[in-house]
Structure formats: structure tokens, C-alpha cells
TrEMBL record:
Keywords: NAD, Oxidoreductase. Residues 110-297 form the D-isomer specific 2-hydroxyacid dehydrogenase NAD-binding domain. This is 2-hydroxyacid dehydrogenase. Pfam families: 2-Hacid_dh, 2-Hacid_dh_C.
Amino acid sequence: MRVAVFSCKPYDKRTLSDCAHGTSLSLSFFESRLSMETVKLVQDFDAVSCFVNDDINADVIASLKQQGVHVIALRCTGFNNVDLQAAKDQDVQVFHVPDYSPTSVAEHAVALIMTLNRKTHRAYHRVKEGNFALEGLMGFNLEGKTVGCVGTGRIGAAFCRIMKGFGCHVYCYDLYPSEALIELGCEYVSLEDLYEKSDIISLHCPLNQSTHHLINQQTLAKMKDGVMIINTSRGALVHAQEAIDALYTGKIGFLGLDVYEQENEIFFEDMSSHIIQDSVFQLMLTFPNVVVTGHQGYFTHEALSHIAATTVDNLLHYRTK
Ligand code: NAD
């Protein structure tokens, strides 16, 4: 089976090549993202492998099918960049990697919390300049704080377990409560209650119509003054401009983001530079109580190996169906 791998970074190429070695898969790697502009590259392929930034809309799927592609193997968990209905209509099978490393993303969410609560990002820059003054760097303990987790699937559950270990009281909201988390002492409440009670709110639900801009002016108004918001899920869960307004008023005391709404438009567009030219984003970065990372929650040795192995398995599984 000939597979066109889109949005491919050197580390993807290494891990995928290792996993596909000795199998019937023949992989070709493309740095560009899959879109209507690049879909013509798949002329001689049976399958494509894509990442979160690839734009797999109905037109792209129709073109894939027309060129003989029957399978899309995503190297990510979320499906929000794929028109699943169009794939079904065109009889194109879509695979994803359901749980490549929930721990990697959960630990990154905790890393953002611990950077913000101890102001490590500011301390580091100060010490680099030889300045050991502690003025303005007062932190707070996590023990005894209330943490709200929105979405307690694989990543959210791993996050809750870690926060329980810190001695936090963990409030959860999910459409499907987890018995294991309840046994651990986590408390499922309504979303309203979670907003009202939490010192820290971490988002681990998928992006869909009901969660788009979940954090906005109205929902922020229900939260504690100075709340910490952490988003390692998908950028559009947070209304960026309204979050900035809340940073100005102090409603948001700390903001930690691994994902940003406009990131897909620039991600992998140009391998030499991944600069977001977005004025709202630039403004966000001027706040000392904001920490942003560039969608690296999943980016660990363990997760990348798992992603590559599952992607290859998915393609081989399709081959033998
Ligand atoms: P999952 O499917 O295991 O869990 C998602 C949970 O959200 C489920 O329990 C589901 O019931 C719940 N949910 C659905 N709609 C909800 C709603 N409206 N309100 C509250 N909960 C809702 O997914 P996961 O593996 O835990 O991943 C969660 C998200 O993390 C993914 O959708 C993806 O967007 C993101 N993610 C980010 C990175 C990264 O590198 N930053 C990596 C992987 C995944």
C-alpha cells in the first residue's frame, strides 16, 4: 500500500519509517499540509496519513476518492479537522490514534499550572540576567486548591489523578462520569458549579459545536475572580479576545495555553517559520500571567512512538480487511 504522509516533520518520518520497516507499506513524506492546494500530490497513492492541521474537508475527500484513496490514517486523537459525514458518504475509512499518551498531555497541563502558580517563566528570565530578586514572584500552593476538569476522558482522567496527588479538591464535568474517578474522590458537578467553585479550570473536552468558545464572557462571569484557565485541548474552546478582556479586568488571574484558535492556519505552512501573525495572539503574550506553548502537549518520546506504531497498525489493518 502506497501512503502519502502529510504535515510530516523529520521526527514523524523517523518514527514512521522505523515502524513501517519490513511491512507492505511504502511511505512518501510531504512537509505540506493536506488541503485543496496540495491534494493533487496524492495521484499515485492508496492512503493518506494526516495530522491536526490538515484540512480534510468535503472537497478534499471527494478529490482523494477520485484519485483512488480509500483510507485516511490520522496521526492524532481529534477528528475535528475531518468532514466525517463526507468521508462516510464517499466510503473513505478514517482511522485515528485514540490514546497515544494521555499522560503526556495531562502532565503538560500540570506543567502549565506549575509554571503559572510559581511564576517560573518570569523567574527564569530574571535569573538569566543575574537578578535573584523575588519581588513580584510570590506563588501559591496547589495543595488544598479546587480544580475543575471539563472532560474526563483519557487525558482529563490522567489530569484528575495527578491533581488529586497534589491534595487538590477535584470537581469534574463530563457527559459520562467515570466511576474510577468518583472512587478516587473526584466530585462530578454541573458545569455551572464547576465554574463557580474552581480556583483552576483545565479543559480536556473535544472541540465541537457545543464546546466552541466554551470559555467566553458569559461563562467567565460565573467563575471566581483570578481564576486560572488551562487549555491543552483545542484552541477554539477559548474565545481569545474575551479571555484578553478578562485578563485586563483580573477575572482571569492566570492563563496557560498549549493550543490557539488560529494555529492551524499557520502550522506547517512554512517549515522554516511557524510565526502566528495574529494581533490578538500577540496581545495575549504581553501579559506576564499568560504562558503559551505551541501545541506540544503530546510531544514526548513515548507518545510519538505510540502514534507511529498505531498509524502503521491502522493502515495494515485496513490492508488485511
Ligand atoms: P477522550 O475522547 O478520551 O475524552 C474526551 C471527554 O470529553 C469524553 O469523556 C467526553 O465524554 C467528554 N466530552 C464530550 N463533550 C463534552 C462536553 N460538551 N463537555 C464536557 N465533556 C465533554 O479524549 P482525550 O484523549 O482525553 O482528548 C481530549 C482532547 O485533548 C482531544 O479532543 C484533543 O482535542 C486534545 N488533545 C490535545 C493534545 C495536545 O497535544 N495538546 C494531544 C491530544 C489530544
